[in-house]
Specification:
Structural class: mainly alpha
Number of helices: 2
Distance between the termini: 15 Å
Radius of gyration: 12 Å
Largest sheet: none
Order of helices and strands: HH
Length: 53
């Protein structure tokens, strides 16, 4: 795994975890929070891939 791929993955993972946590703390069910985190992960991968690359 290249350094660039690792950076994209870690930034996306942190964003997804934050989104998942905040969604769950806001009172939504766990399944909804996980789906929101997954969507945030995908969007962040796409964004950081284009911004860093």
């Amino acid at each position: 795994m290249s350094l660039r791929s690792a950076v994209v993955f870690l930034i996306s993972l942190q964003t997804a975890a934050g989104t998942c946590l905040l969604t769950y703390v806001a009172g939504n069910p766990l399944a909804t929070a996980v789906l929101a985190g997954g969507a945030a992960f995908g969007a962040t991968v796409a964004f950081t891939h284009s911004a860093i690359g």
